[in-house]
Specification:
Layout: E1 88-98, E2 101-103, E3 111-114, E4 119-122, E5 130-140, E6 143-145, E7 164-171
Parallel strand pairs: 1-5, 2-6, 5-7
Antiparallel strand pairs: 3-4
């Protein structure tokens, strides 16, 4: 399971990674943007006009990377479950068989209450991770997931962008 094993989020800062979501501009009623990778991260909602932008699409299909983290929200005191990106995995071999589950999803954004302004702050979700398969014969009968994490719902952090899957094989079912 590679869920949340990608680039890490940081409290009240831009998410780490090439598509890191932006923070909430240190203003109440704002939320961080989602991390980007195979898809762009979503923008955090802003009640006062200040919001965190989502991270951009990045990477390529010839190499694989981890998902970028979502932007932190103001008041987030812990990096636990703060919209980390999904992990990256490369499988190489003559024959590759996936009959179970490979999950490389981004983490959910974190909600933190702020009693001073009667609202919460929400971190952006992490981008889904990446999977690269290179083989002569590839068979996939199971499931592969590279979804982006949902943004925190306390004040609507941006959702993480989807991950990337690339399969290079010469024959077989994919």
């Amino acid at each position: 399971n590679g869920d949340g094993k990608g680039y890490a989020g940081s409290p009240a800062q831009s998410g780490n990674g090439p598509g890191g979501g932006k923070p909430a501009n240190f203003n109440p009623n704002t939320s961080g943007g989602g991390g980007g990778y195979g898809g762009a991260g979503g923008q955090g909602i802003a009640a006062l006009g200040n919001y965190g932008n989502g991270g951009p699409i990045n990477g390529n299909t010839s190499s694989i990377d981890m998902g970028s983290a979502g932007g932190g929200s103001v008041g987030t005191a812990s990096s636990t479950n703060l919209g980390n990106g999904g992990g990256g995995l490369t499988l190489k071999g003559n024959e590759v068989l996936i009959s179970g589950l490979i999950s490389l999803k981004g983490d959910l954004g974190t909600d933190v209450a702020n009693p001073a302004v009667s609202v919460g702050f929400s971190g952006g979700g992490g981008a889904g991770g990446g999977l690269l398969i290179r083989s002569y014969n590839t068979t996939i009968t199971g499931n592969v997931r590279t979804k982006g994490g949902i943004g925190g719902t306390g004040n609507a952090g941006g959702g993480g962008g989807g991950g990337a899957i690339a399969v290079y094989h010469k024959k077989g079912a994919a």
